[in-house]
What does this fold into?
Amino acid sequence: MNKYKVQVQGLAIEGGRPKLSGPELLCQLKGGVKVATLTSDLQPFSELTWGSLLPQRSMTFDLGPFKSCAVVTSAGSMRHSGLGAEIDSHDMVLRFNAAPTAGYEKDVGAKTSVRLINSQVMASDDHHFLSSSLYSAGILVGWDPAPYSADLNEWYNKTDYPIFEQYQVYRKLHPQQSFHILHPHMEWQLWELIQGNMAEPIQKNPPSSGLLGTVLMMSLCDVVHVYEFLPSRRKTKLCHYYQSYYDEACTVGAYHPLLYEKNLVKRMNLGPDQDIYTHGRVTLPGLHTFTC
Ligand code: C5P
It folds into this structure.
């Protein structure tokens, strides 16, 4: 399975690869992954009638830096965490896809500053993306997997789900809400970073929303706390805290190289292991806070 035509040549190192330290990995991330969102001046959008609906500047250019940010994964182990107040004490809180806060405030908090949504959620009838009030809080950021070597033009004509059609309709319905789309280069640069630091071949699919959102916040904040990406003692087969659906693949990955993503985040974590065990909490530095 290589749906996105990923090429691994050049990433394999003969005789094994050196295991990088946390600070070395952070420097690879800072130097090798360009965090950006689409702007209206980029081709092909600059030539499309609806292109002016896109922001004029990248999200990372306009926002931040914020002091402290929280990334709240949707893992089942968020249930009974009691982390709501701690999460809400951050300046910015990022959530994913259809993750609700109503009814779960004690465990996941109530603040939503940014919501990262994949194109499948944007397009599927089940999620009522265009009409549900779930999506009306905070800044929206959409993403869709592009073919590995594609430029924006090729991706525009070959998205996984109709992200641009949904984007246009949503923007017209909610013109006041800030709505960005991740530049797809980021996904594959991150993928290369993961594969380049693993001794075995990883899934040839883009990283999960969890890692994309974490790196997005690392580009906007001084400190990022990620909750239940590395599972705590509450680890469970429950997929999402807001659904009664059990599947371990949600935590360890099937489509996404999630286990490898978690391995990298564990190595980059600045916090004590005890924080992971008790709070499912990882501490990562903002990309602008360190030099390489
Ligand atoms: O399932 P969904 O992609 O909406 O969840 C958001 C993110 O939370 C995932 O991309 C993944 O990184 C993380 N997650 C997790 N363990 C779970 C469920 C989600 O690490 N059980």
Summary: The domain at 22-287 is CATH 3.90.1480.20 (sialyltransferase cstii, chain A). The chain has a mean pLDDT of 96. Residues 185-196 form the longest helix (12 residues). Residues 47 and 118 are 25 Å apart (CA to CA).
